[in-house]
Structures are given as structure tokens and as C-alpha cells.
Amino acid sequence: MVLSAILLIPGVVSLLIPPSLTLGLEFSSGSALEVRFEEGVEFTESDARIVLESMNHPEAIIQVTGDNGLLIRTDTLQEAIGDRPSEQSEIRDALSEQIGPIAPEGFSFESVSPVVARETVVRTIWAAVAATIGILIYVTWAFRNVPNPVRYGLAAIVALVHDVVIVIGIFSILGKVLGVEVDVIFMVGLLTIAGYSVNDTIVVFDRIRENVARSANQDRPLSAIVNTSLLESMARSLNTSLTTMLVIVALLLIGGATIRPFLLVLACGVVIGTYSSIFVASQFLVMWDQGELRRLLPRRRQAT
Amino acid sequence: MVRRRILRTAIIVGILTTLAVLALSFKEINFLGLNRDSDGPLGLTLGLDLQGGSYLKYQARRPDEVDVTFAQLPQDVTVQAVEIEGALTGQTAMVETVEGEVNRFNILVSDVAEVAREDLEEDVRGELETWAEERGFTVQIDAGLSDEEDVQFTVAFVPKEAFDDGQIESALAGIDERVAVRTSQDNRYSLEFPQTRVTEAVQAEITDALSALAPIEDVNVRPGLPPTDDDMQGVIETINRRINALGTSEPTIQRLGDDKVIVQLPGVEDLEEAKATIGTTAQLLFLERTCETEQCLEFTEEPVGDGLTGDDLEDAYPDRDPAGQPAVSLRFDGRGTKLFADLTRRIQGNTLKRIAFYLDGEEILAPVSRAYIPDGRTIIEGLFTVQETRRIAIQLKSGAIPVPLTPIAETTVDATLGQDSLDKSLRAGLVGLGLVLAFMMVYYRAPGIVAAVALLIYAAILLAVFKLLPVTLTLSGLAGVILSIGMAVDANVLIFERVKEELRTGRTLASSMDVGFRRAWTAIFDGNVSTLITCAILWWLGSRLGAPQVTGFSIALGIGVAVSMFTAVTVSRNLLQLMALTRWGRNTSLFTPEGRLRPAGASGGVGED
User: Fold this and answer.
1) Do B541 and A127 touch (CB under 8 A)?
2) What does the pLDDT look like over B542-555, one tens digit per residue?
């Protein structure tokens, strides 16, 4: 549990310090322009900044990208009015005039209005809530033959929340340090981790359930049952995580650059998910059973 | 008996695998109505981020409306009824103000002889106009209700400085070419902007432009309503029609939510060309068609007069024909009326002649002309539904996309970049798969080989399903597939661990497998179902947000998990059982990582060698 605390605290702290997360375009609003110049065109970030300031966008955030290009974030750009062209094409023209010719397919933009951005945030939160409830219901139902099935569901959720918070915390820190953005793909990654973590946790719980059934007439304390179950399923958990990690790492190292952030989310999730299934979810069950959750009451030891 | 069952299942598995491999090896499949033909590897349909192409996202909204009120002009005077009575020197008239209105009156002239009526109107008009001119007004006169003896007029005085619609429209043409005055009353004008969103900046421009005409008191912007389903359907159809002209292979045009459209054009890398094609005003063209036979399978066509086009059409609206069926009414302008009259006079009643309506080069109607139509007003009858009449009317009238569109995203994915990503990711996937298989075989030995074979079969079936459904594979979809491979491995691991345990307790191989499988299955099932729940929610989220990445991933993962459950039940289990039947099955040490076990009967402890 101490380890959990160590993992959790930096993340939570980072989340509490604004901006808690470096939000991607879909969640904040505004426009994002991606420009790629032709080979041989030389420029610096300040060149671009001058251009943008002259176009009335001093707030622009400019990043130079690896393939001779720029990533520009601004407030929502003006669309075309009658004969007058849209702001993004004006900026495009200005950039190509003042800096250099833009590669043939090297210009793309995306605009998200504040309304849509807010909608996206709301929808994503709903999705998360729905997933949580869905899983809770399902686990409770699947474990209905065990005493206190709701506990299992809640324990799974606790492990899940634990994982998610840690991962979000990590990305909050990364956002501050490396400017890594939280976008829709990140959400996908998170929800995937959710599914995966629960999957993992359930497998462990399945073993616990079986052992509980087996020792129904033996009066073994839950903590002991859980211990045995964990030992028994340890090999499987580690193996599965290992194989999945093998694939993810292969993709990370050799695969295309576009899905790297996504894979990073998954990788963190797999590791932490496995950890949480073993060290958090089961702990939670035992603690509940032993009444440790009522903080004020002293620990009750059961006779072994 | 058990043996036979095992063998039978094995045969089924074999057939499935062969089918899957067959499906994958042919690029084109044309079988029992199933038609799949794609350019991707193995004939799979690739998404934009793997194939390269253009991605455009538009938002549709009905035109914004602006109410402009010009300030009351200083010389604005209220005309009194008595003044008018005084102005009408020639006759005895009673003038009263129309209730609730300013400068609007009803004039009643009594005891008018029949013969004198025409003159009366002229006189009244003349007198009022002269009088109004001097005062700085223009006057509008409408003949009102009249009976045998009395004649009534309704008169409105409008301050001279007020404008006609044309003036306002040309003042604003710079902002939106198709701006139109919808209604006007006194100094209040209601304007519609079909092509431009009236943002704050635009509002300022409107105020500037109109202030040049006269001082403005108020400008009120009413943002356009979201489009209706009919509107969106018209939008999608129009875009569809225009994109077809580009000749793209497999374009995707999707409606997103209530008011957005996503257009994906694989292979089209000139974004500007794509945008231009979508954005043009359509061409509505009328041609005179001469048919060879009544069926009109072959025909020749020629223009009407020196060309009858959509420009000559003044209005088109949904209507009902005399029989009460849905129909479309047309009204041509002056020039159009003449051409149309000529045409119909010549071809009326001739069933070998048609009037062909072409929109953007595509024929939408080709009715026969039943009568000579001299006044440019006609109705098109056909077996239309009410919706169709609405749509056709919109298309004919505006000729353009029914609801103005604003681009909110555009990206080009470079084909080479896409190809690069694809190659790299495929390679990485294969490497990963290879590593996993190697690990499994080393650690689990004999069952590991089973796992390897099972996984390969799984991959084949999965890809075949993707190809046949078809599922468009995006980069994140690929990630989903790879993740589901991980879960398929997981299922196998669960089975093997269980079998190993059962073996350790001293069961025979056959019964260990049986029990092991059964016990493992609950865990597999529960775990996978929770993943599927997550996939379903992800898919919902992705569709609502219009993020093909998200939906692609969720579909890929969902199908992957489903297929893996299937292969775990049939393939893995079956292969294991097959193995147990062979002579390898005698040597249980092959089935556990630890090597030799103590034979059955000894204490249930683990035996290590």
C-alpha cells in the first residue's frame, strides 16, 4: 500500500497544480495548424511568431516539429466571410510568403469551437461513468454466488480508479515537463486500461471465489484465502502482462510514430493494472472484511 | 466416443481455417452476393491514416438572420388623417388611421359610380403622390375592399429615405453574395445570410456597411437553427454527387451528430481540389430530349433555346398536384418563361419528347410535357413522397448545398507517411507476435506449441472477419488488434496454468485438461465480457465525437476479443485434446514447465527435476 501512496502522491499533486492537464484540442477549444515546409527552408520559432503576431494572434503557441514544420495552436480562427478568405488560409499565405514555400500536402488545420469542446468533455465523462457502472453491475452479477458480491465489484472499481488516477497523474507531469497533450486518443487508452485492469482483477477474483467456495466449511479467514489465491494466480498474471508488454514494446520501438503516445498510455496501464490487481484490489477486499476500513476502530484480528 | 467428438471438432476447425486463409488470399471476392474488393494488403480495407488521403469535416447550420432597424430619421413626420383628407381635393373621402400603425390609412370614398372607378384610383394616386413627394415620403397604395358604391384604399406612407431591398442587398453583397432581405417593414429589415456565419466581426461589418446608407439604431442577430434531417440528407446527397465527379475510390461521407458531416477521400491528396469540388454552386441544366422509343432507353439531347438553366428558375417549392399527390411546383423568371413556353408549345403531348433536368451533370428528372405552358408556372408530377418533393425543390431552387457549410477540420494524410506507418506497424506486430509465440513455446513446452498454432489460426480468422465484414482498419484499429492478441494469449495462459495445476494434483492428462478448461473458462468469460462492455462504451463515445480513431479501435478490439473467446473454446481446447490423444500425451512432463512429475498416486506436491 505504501508503494501505491508513493505512486499516487506526485500524480495527484501535479493534478492539483494548474494547469492540471495539458489538454488536447478536442477538450479545450481553438484551432490547431500543422505546417510542413519544403526541404531546405530554414526558419526559427521566432520567425513564425512574428508572422502570427502580425496576424493578430499573439496568443499562439508555436512548436517546431522534426520534419521541418510547425505546430501552431491559436484561439479559434475566423472562417471565410463572403469574398474574404478564412483566417487559416490567410495565415498559410503569410507563412509561405514570409518564411518559405509550404510542402504540397503540408498544411492541415482543425478548429474546435468552445461549444463542441465542452460537449466532448461531458461526453467523455459520461462514458467513463457508464463504463464504471456497467462494470460494477456486471461484476456484482458474475459474483452473485459469493458472500458480499458487491464488495468484489467495488474492489474492482477501486483498483480501476487507482490505476486511472496514477496514469492521469503521470501524464499530468509529462504534460508540464514535455508538453504531452491529453486528447481523445488518450481517452481511448484510458478506457482500454480500464477494461484491461478489470479483466485482470476479475481473473484474480475468480480464483478467490473458487477458493472461498472450496473452503466454505473450513472457516479460513478471508485474508488467508486471498493470499493463497494470489500465489496461485501470480504466475498467470505475470505471464499475461509479460506477453502483452512484449507486443506493446515491439510496437513502441519499431512501429509508426503516430500511435506512440497511445502505446505509452497502454504500457503504463498494463504494468499498473497488473500491480493493482495483485496488490490493491485484493487488499481492499481483505481490509473491508477485517473492518480496517473503519479508520477509527482498531484492527480486529481474527483467530486463525 | 470422446475421440470421435474431438476429431469432428478438429475437422471443423480445419475447415474454418482453410476458409479464412482462402478469404485472405484472394484480392477480389465475388461470392453469393458478397462483394469485396479493396486495395489494401490482403484485400483489407484501410482507413485514411494508413492509406493517405483527405479528411474534411463540415458543420451545417441554417442561415443566420439579422434584424436591422434603422434609426428614426429626423424629418420623420407622422402623417395625420386630416392632412390626407385635405390632399384629396377631388373627392369626398373618409380617412382613418389603421389601428396600431403609423402612417397607414384606410381611405373610403363613398358613392362612386361604376364608370368613375378607374379614374378615381388614378386621381387618388396622383394626388397622394404629389402630396407625399412634397413632404418627403413615398406612398404605397393598394386598392382595398370595395362594394357597389364605395371604394376603399389602403395607403402607407414611407419616409423617402427608406430603402428598397436591392439597395440593402448590394450594400451587403461584399459580406455574403447571396444575402437576401426576407421581410421589411418601415425601417426594420430582416436579412438572411446563406453563405456566411454572422460572428461578432461580421456583425460589425454589417453595421458598417449599412451605416453608409443611414444611421442604424439596432442590429439583432438570430443564429441559424440547426439543420433538419431533410437538410442533412440533401447535404450528403449533394456532396456525394459532387465527389463522384472526382472519381475517388471508396469515398466516405458520414453524418455526425445533428449537424456535422465528415468527408473522407482516400487517395485524394489535393485538399484544395476536394474542397473546391464540394463547395461549388451546382449547375442546373434543362435539356430537350428526343427519345427513340417510348421507353426512352436511347435518346439525343439538345439545349433549350440558347440555354435554359437554373438561373432562369425563380422558385421551386413542394406542392400538391390536382389529385392531391405530392409534387414540385416551378416558376420561371421572364426569360425562362419564354424559353419554357416555346419548348412546351412544341413538345406538348409528344411522348417521345422529354424535358431532362440535370443537376451537376446527373439527371434527376425527365418528365413529359403534357401541355403548353405559357406563364412559366408548372407542376411536376411523379410518384414522389412528400420528403422527395421537399428535397427536389430545395435542389432545384438553390442548386447549391441546401444548408451552408463551414469547414471545421481538414487534414491530408500523406500516402507515403501512411504507408510508412503501416509497414512499420505491421512489422512491429509480427515481431511482437513472434516473440510471444517463442516465449509460449519455451515456457509451456507442448501446450506452448498448441498456443502458437491456435494463435496463428486466430490471426487468420480475425483478419478474414475484418476483410469480409468489412472493417476499415486504422492505425489505432491495428493497436486494438494487437491488444486483442494479447488477450487471446491470456486466455490460453489461463487454460494452461489451470491444466498444469490439475496435473500437479495427480489427475490424468485427459481429465486435467477437462477440469482445467472448465475452471479457466469462467475467468476468461468474465474478464472478456468486461472488456467488451468497455468496447461498447468506447464505440458509442467515438461515434458521438466523430473520431474514427476511437471507433476503429473499439471495433477492432471488440471483434478481437469475441473471436479470441471463440478460438479459446474451440481451437485451443481441441488442439490440446488432440495432442493428448497422440503418443506425446503419455509424457506428461511435456505439459508442464517444470518437467517431470511424480506419477499419479504420490503426494500432491510439486515434483521438480
Assistant:
1) yes
2) 777 766 677 788 88
Q: What is the pLDDT of residue A296?
A: 39
Predicted confidence band at B436 (pLDDT cuts at 50, 70, 90)? Answer: confident
What value, to the nearest 5°, has the Cα angle with vertex B552 and ends B547 and B553?
105
Q: Which of A91, A188, A265 to mutate to test the interface with B (most CBs of B within 10 A)?
A: A188
Closest partner residue to A192 (CB to CB) among B271, B483, B540 is B483
> Are B463 and B44 in contact, with CB atoms under 8 Å apart?
yes
H/E stretch holding A270 reads: helix A260-276
Question: In which residue are the cell numbers 511424480 written?
Answer: B598
Rounded to whole angstroms, the Cα distance separating B433 from B425 reads 12
Residue A62 β-bridge partners: A72
Give contacts of A238 with chain B, Cβ < 8 Å. Answer: none
Residues of B in contact with A243 (CB under 8 A): 436, 439-440, 486, 489-490, 493
Query: Across the strands, what pairs with B356?
Result: B287
Q: Does A87 touch chain B (CB under 8 A)?
A: no
Residue carrying the nine cell digits 503419455 = B586
Contact across the interface for B526 and A202, Cβ inside 8 Å: yes
Q: What is the pLDDT of residues A216-230, one digit of tens each?
A: 777 777 777 778 778
**ipTM (interface predicted TM):** 0.73
Give every CB contact of residue B138 below 8 A, 6+ residues apart in sequence: B132, B157, B158, B160, B162
Q: Which residues of A touch B541 (CB under 8 A)?
A: 123-124, 127, 187, 191
Largest CA distance in chain B: 133
Chain B touched by A145 (CB under 8 Å): no
User: Cα–Cα distance between B262 and B266 in angstroms, integer?
Assistant: 13
Q: What is the pLDDT of residues B376-394, one digit of tens each?
A: 788 887 777 777 777 777 6
In the predicted model, what is the mean pLDDT of residues B335-349? 82
